[in-house]
Design brief:
about 5% strand, 7 helices, about 210 residues, Neuronal membrane glycoprotein m6-b, mainly alpha, membrane, Myelin_PLP, transmembrane
């Protein structure tokens, strides 16, 4: 049996709120402060950016090799690096804004009328930027679908010759053995651009 002094000490500590939390209690308390839906969207955003970056770099390189045009899409590497870095920073800012806006964090951060007005302005600005980015990524998704349509159209038709000049590329007319090799390499290229399209769609959903 516990002595009377120990019982009094436990009651006193409980009344003063000084009981020792276990690691599980601290973890649950910490997770309650995290906006789980936004955290999941942030993880999906990072996953989409990673797959998009890899798919675009590999797809652009293989497309240049297939079409034998090293100047094709010369700006793609710089664009991918800039867009990926920018989206990572913006995604982290969205996660921070969601964390500050969720309960019970918002009660401690925005606990006055002036701070509450600042919070409303921050949320409105974040929503407007997120909506604008979502529209831009929808347009980018339609652009990334263009190579898929061209390759699938070429493979479905299965003609005896392919004139790359119709699509605005160099290389002339592909026939015979060159055409078979061109189609086999196009199938591998189809996978890369398919990953790019799916990654862009994933980014749109995360936004």
């Amino acid at each position: 049996m516990l002595s009377r002094n120990m019982v009094d000490l436990m009651v006193k500590n409980k009344a003063n709120g000084r009981h020792n939390d276990s690691c599980c209690d601290k973890f649950i308390k910490c997770m309650s402060l995290v906006p789980c839906p936004t955290l999941l969207a942030w993880i999906l955003l990072l996953l989409g950016i990673g797959c998009l970056t890899g798919g675009l770099l590999i797809g652009t390189r293989d497309t240049r090799t297939l079409l034998d045009d090293q100047d094709l899409l010369w700006f793609m590497e710089y664009t991918v690096i800039g867009v990926s870095s920018g989206m990572f920073i913006v995604g982290c800012l969205f996660l921070l804004a969601a964390h500050l806006s969720s309960e019970p964090t918002s009660r401690r951060v925005f606990n006055s009328f002036r701070k509450n007005k600042c919070a409303q302005g921050m949320n409105i600005f974040a929503l407007v930027v997120c909506y604008f980015l979502a529209v831009c990524w929808v347009l980018a998704t339609t652009i990334f679908a263009t190579p898929l349509v061209l390759i699938i159209n070429m493979l479905i038709q299965d003609s005896d010759s392919v004139d790359l000049g119709i699509y605005g590329f160099k290389g002339g007319v592909k026939t015979g053995t060159y055409l078979n090799t061109f189609k086999e390499e196009s199938k591998d290229l189809l996978i890369c651009w398919g990953i790019v399209f799916c990654s862009s769609f994933l980014i749109v959903n995360s936004l």
